[in-house]
Amino acid sequence: MNAIEELLKKDRDAGVPEPPEAAYTRAVLKRRLGRPPAMATSGPADDVERRLVIGAGATALGAALVALLLGASPWWLLAVPVSALALSPILLRRGVR
Amino acid sequence: MEALMELLLQQQGPLFAYLYRMCGDADQAEELMQETLLRALRAAERCRPETNVKSWLLSIATNLLRDQWRRKKRWGAFLSLEEWHQEAPDTVDDEVLRGLDCEQVRRALLDLPLEHRSVILLRYYHDMSYEEIARALAVPIGTVRSRIHNGLQRLRRLLTAEVVTR
User: In the listed set B77, B93, B113, which residue is the last one of a domain according to the structure?
Assistant: First the structure.
């Protein structure tokens, strides 16, 4: 065994902080299992992502309404839900890989 | 579900230790542990009687970390050749390296790219065989061998730098 492997073994034997009590983890898991997966797994990065998507949608909708008021064809309002379809992989990427 | 949860909770010690060493922070390790256990519970159908629960959980935890670090672009941050040569310090004797303490080893481990850190932890802290690591990370066994080899070399360089600079 070389020096690096010995150091790793020494560190391993030194241990790490104790994990939380199993009862606490059990209670947290039960509570989080009651929520929908998207909500349960969301973190700060997901919140930013969601805000960006909502912001983009709102901007598109606003632009469409202005165009409508100015007399443009309302058909391109359909572009909003159609482009939302393209974002569905981002919004749905959840679960075990 | 209750039975699986109890089975998973029996492994929370090794799972927490792995995550703590992977991220170096107890609070973050706790959050990641809960998320890993949740993912496992939601994928209960993948846990068969022959499944090694510990390996399965460590595999989910590694995927979770990889997802998180990919967002921060920190997974597999390889050095360029120039950096490699610049960072390579003088060699030191094994006896001197053996005198380093655990804190220095942990710091050096945290400086490794995650793909090296994960295989070294699985091999040396969780006694997993190369085959088990390959299965858990869904990579060829040759990749596991080379990651361990390169990871140990890099760790040696980091620890040598620690000796040289102290």
Answer: B77
What ipTM was assigned to the predicted interfaces of this complex? 0.80
- Minimal CA separation from A13 to chain B, in Å: 9
**Residue A95: per-residue pLDDT:** 45
> In chain B, which residues have their Cβ closer than 8 Å to the Cβ of A41?
35, 38
* B155, B141: one domain: yes
Domain that holds residue B126: 82-166
Q: Which two tokens stand for residue B7?
A: 């089975």
Considering chain A, what is the average pLDDT of its residues? 76
Distance (Å, rounded) from C-alpha A91 to C-alpha A75? 26
Model pLDDT, residue B71: 72
- d(CA B92, CA B159) in angstroms, rounded, equals 10
**Min Cα separation A89/chain B (Å):** 15
CB distance B17 to A12 below 8 Å? no
pTM over 0.95? The answer is no
